[in-house]
């Protein structure tokens, strides 16, 4: 990277654009020159595109042909730290840098000068006559000191029509001004009093704050059982970062969670932080992007891509629920937000807090190896104690066909209903039934475009493919044999379980929580609040409920199928089951009543089930670590998944075979290649998928070897290749 910071008019600069080219393009610096990192608009053929001044031009062509940068945009230039970060992520994930730039500029209208809108303040003039309505408007403006309102806000606050306000403007009693639409975020005050901390919490806070004050990079794994106050603790680290005048970012896995979280931030710091997620409007996104860059947003709460916002001085990144698989992005750039948070912080001298009740084995191992500091919160806040965990041995239960709630679980739920407490029945499957079978011909209804079954969603009265999202109406006749009335659901999903619960407990009020049942995050939040207030006797939920919601009246968790995720081809199957079961169980007994978790299982002796029940977490991790070490798989070895896809299976396999034969660059670093084999989901959206797996020793330069390995490939027509470094999901 160049050290030249400024380019005079006419000097050649290299501009990185988000266009799919594998290099930067040379342009002449515009009138007035430009800084390194400046966001610019450049001509590309007949178009104008966004770019960033990446360094001095490469030259080597007829300079009289060089075109000029059209204009420099009115936003803060990209900081060097960000350019380094994007470059490193590109190298790590084997992503072309232009795709990285797209990630870093995910806000529309960056080039526009901020649009203006009218705002209203108290003026100096006196109205010719006073009416009640006019008095109210002036009172509102006086009550709020110097604050400005939009016309709509002011009219609403005062309970008047906008013409009343306009009338006052004419008289000079109210002042109308133009103001940029992207306003700074309200100031967060770290010195407002926080909660009184327990001894455990205070000790963790003082370590985190001391780390924060060093101003240097460092990562801490904050492990604490659900309800131990991890959030309270890391908010104090945020406070310390803010006190030092630095910015903080809190990453959350699930947008549904942000609402509850924002309320807590507001209670602690007196105002709401900036929010960044896919549900935000374009205007909101642009405001966040700009204000973060100007330093006028102290705290951002967001989804994984918030990591690519142009922070001016990022001092802390919190990754909450750090084990959550949604931190891994699996389309476009394949990156792990957790790992890249550590990378970004190392570059800019920020602290990282990875918070979880059930950390990933990766983070656990990094703490064991001394790379991360580890802090434990061992007890739940207040009187709350961890739930008692017990198996229900399904081999011994008398089950009616087509039912999934065992007599033992039924009895436990009944007890709770009688005591006015809540129960949660957990099943990690959306829809009514995972399989729809024709009893005449034996065929299961599959997606036309994917190698996957269609899942019945009775609420929607449709079949849905969970791979590609395709839906179709539930047919009356079998699509294979044409026989009518023989289609039958097989196995339970959340909707079917709810049906069983309604029949079994007719006196109970039942609420369902599944990500697909709510049109918006707001509707989901409302439902969660209702449940938390006690407005349900039985909650039936999918994975969604495992994530950090507080239900104080909940004292029983029944896991319908604890064996469900135990047997995957996935190397993390045991880890995932362990995490999920413990997270779900952690929902019970959060207030003053003790909770119980009952796990329905056909294999109570399975080592993972035993580890879950005994609560011996360290034991589980040690055993899991030893197993992975012996197999040489992550985090004790490196892996990459290569997926080739195309409309015809033959050519896809041909390339896969050629790659497997020409594996010299991999062998040089001691890596092995497995496959090609049909990917676990062999067809998605009509494309056949073939997978190769690369396994390498821990320290091996796997990216470099893979880059050399795939460089000679010429993919014809519609063939695609994607590389996933450190794959999390094998599909
Ligand atoms: P975690 O993030 O570990 O699940 P939380 O921070 O959400 O835990 O805390 C669980 C509940 O206990 C929350 O309602 C929180 O407000 C409350 N709580 C935790 N610590 C304290 C404290 N020191 N004082 C008052 N309330 C607390
Ligand atoms: Zn499909």
TrEMBL record:
Cofactor(s) required for function per UniProt: Zn(2+)
Q: Does the keyword Glycoprotein apply?
A: no
Q: What class of enzyme is it?
A: isomerase
Q: What is its EC number?
A: 5.6.2.4
Q: How is the cofactor bound?
A: Binds 2 zinc ions per subunit.
Residue positions annotated to bind Zn(2+) 2 are: 447, 450, 465, 468
Q: Which Pfam families does the annotation name? A: DEAD, PriA_3primeBD, PriA_C, Zn_ribbon_PriA
The Gene Ontology biological process terms listed for this entry are: DNA recombination; DNA replication initiation; DNA replication, synthesis of primer; double-strand break repair
Record field: catalytic activity? Couples ATP hydrolysis with the unwinding of duplex DNA by translocating in the 3'-5' direction; ATP + H2O = ADP + phosphate + H(+)
Tell me which domain of life the UniProt entry assigns to the organism this sequence originates from: Bacteria
| Domain named Helicase ATP-binding: residues | 211-377
**InterPro entries in UniProt:** DEAD/DEAH_box_helicase_dom, Helicase_ATP-bd, Helicase_C-like, P-loop_NTPase, PriA, PriA_3primeBD, PriA_3primeBD_sf, PriA_C
Keywords from the UniProt entry: ATP-binding, DNA replication, DNA-binding, Helicase, Hydrolase, Isomerase, Metal-binding, Nucleotide-binding, Primosome, Zinc
GO MF term list:
3'-5' DNA helicase activity; ATP binding; ATP hydrolysis activity; DNA binding; zinc ion binding
Q: Name one GO cellular component term.
A: primosome complex
Q: Where does Zn(2+) 1 bind?
A: 438, 441, 478, 481
Q: Which family does it belong to?
A: Belongs to the helicase family. PriA subfamily.
Subunit-level organization = Component of the replication restart primosome.
Q: What does this protein do?
A: Initiates the restart of stalled replication forks, which reloads the replicative helicase on sites other than the origin of replication. Recognizes and binds to abandoned replication forks and remodels them to uncover a helicase loading site. Promotes assembly of the primosome at these replication forks.
Q: What is this protein called?
A: Replication restart protein PriA
Identify the coding gene: priA
């Amino acid at each position: 990277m160049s050290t030249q910071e400024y380019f005079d008019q006419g000097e050649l600069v290299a501009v990185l654009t988000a266009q799919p080219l594998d290099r930067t393009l040379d342009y002449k610096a515009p009138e007035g020159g430009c800084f390194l990192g400046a966001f610019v608009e450049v001509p590309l053929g007949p178009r104008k595109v966004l770019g960033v001044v990446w360094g001095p031009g490469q030259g080597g062509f007829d300079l009289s042909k060089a075109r000029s940068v059209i204009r420099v945009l009115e936003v803060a230039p990209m900081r060097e730290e960000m350019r380094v970060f994007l470059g490193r992520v590109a190298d790590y994930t084997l992503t072309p840098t232009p795709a990285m730039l797209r990630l870093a500029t995910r806000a529309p209208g960056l080039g526009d000068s901020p649009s203006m809108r009218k705002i209203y303040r108290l003026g100096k003039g006196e109205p010719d006559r006073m009416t009640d309505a006019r008095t109210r408007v002036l009172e509102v403006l006086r009550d709020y000191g110097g604050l400005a309102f939009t016309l709509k806000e002011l009219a609403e606050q005062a309970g008047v029509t906008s013409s009343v306000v306009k009338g006052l403007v004419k008289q000079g009693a109210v002042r109308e001004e133009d103001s940029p639409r992207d306003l700074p975020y309200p100031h967060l005050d770290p010195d407002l009093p926080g909660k009184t901390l327990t001894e455990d919490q205070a000790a963790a806070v003082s370590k985190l704050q001391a780390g924060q004050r060093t101003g240097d990079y460092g990562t801490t794994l904050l492990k604490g059982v659900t309800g131990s106050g991890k959030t309270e603790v890391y908010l104090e680290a945020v406070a310390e970062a803010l006190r030092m005048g630095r910015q903080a970012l809190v990453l959350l896995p699930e947008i549904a969670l942000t609402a509850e979280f924002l309320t807590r931030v507001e209670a602690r710091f007196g105002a709401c932080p900036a929010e960044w997620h896919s549900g935000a409007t374009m205007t909101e996104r642009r405001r966040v992007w700009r204000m973060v860059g100007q330093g006028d947003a102290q705290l951002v709460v967001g989804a994984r891509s918030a990591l690519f916002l142009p922070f001016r001085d990022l001092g802390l990144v919190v990754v909450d629920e750090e084990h959550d698989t949604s931190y891994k992005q699996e389309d476009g750039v394949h990156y792990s937000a957790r790992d890249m948070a550590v990378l970004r912080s190392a570059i800019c001298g920020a602290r990282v807090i990875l918070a979880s009740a059930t950390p990933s084995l990766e983070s656990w191992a990094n703490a064991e190896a001394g790379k991360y500091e580890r802090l434990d919160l061992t007890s739940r806040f207040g009187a709350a104690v961890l739930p008692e965990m017990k198996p229900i041995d399904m081999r011994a239960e008398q089950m009616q066909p087509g039912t999934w709630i065992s007599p033992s679980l039924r009895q436990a739920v009944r007890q709770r209903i009688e005591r006015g407490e809540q129960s949660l029945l957990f099943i990690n499957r959306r829809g009514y039934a995972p399989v729809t079978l024709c009893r005449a011909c034996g065929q299961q209804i599959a997606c036309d475009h994917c190698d996957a079954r269609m899942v019945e969603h009775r609420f929607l009265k449709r079949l849905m493919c969970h791979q590609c999202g395709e839906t179709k109406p539930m047919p009356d006749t079998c699509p294979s044999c044409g026989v009518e009335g023989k289609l039958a659901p097989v196995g339970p999903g959340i909707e079917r379980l709810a049906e069983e619960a309604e029949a079994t407990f007719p006196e109970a009020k039942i609420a369902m929580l599944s990500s697909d049942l709510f049109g918006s995050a707001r509707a989901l939040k409302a439902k969660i609040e209702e449940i938390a207030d006690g407005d349900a006797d039985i909650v039936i939920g999918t994975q969604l409920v495992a994530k950090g919601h507080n239900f104080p009246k909940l004292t029983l968790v029944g896991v319908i199928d604890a064996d469900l995720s135990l047997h995957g081809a996935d190397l993390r199957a045991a880890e995932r089951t362990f995490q999920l079961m413990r997270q779900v169980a952690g929902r019970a007994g959060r207030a003053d009543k003790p909770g119980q978790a009952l796990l329905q299982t056909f294999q109570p002796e399975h080592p993972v089930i035993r580890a879950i029940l005994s609560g011996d977490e360290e034991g589980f991790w040690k055993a899991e670590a030893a197993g992975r070490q012996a197999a040489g798989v992550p985090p004790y070895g490196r892996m990459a998944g290569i997926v080739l896809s195309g409309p015809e299976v033959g050519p896809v396999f041909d390339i896969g075979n050629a790659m497997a034969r020409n594996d010299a660059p991999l062998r040089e670093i001691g890596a092995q290649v497995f496959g090609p084999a049909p990917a676990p989901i062999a067809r998605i959206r009509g494309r056949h998928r073939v997978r190769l797996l690369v396994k390498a020793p821990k320290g091996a330069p796997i990216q470099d070897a893979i880059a050399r390995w795939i460089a000679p490939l010429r993919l014809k027509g519609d063939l695609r290749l994607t590389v996933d470094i450190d794959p999390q999901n094998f599909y």
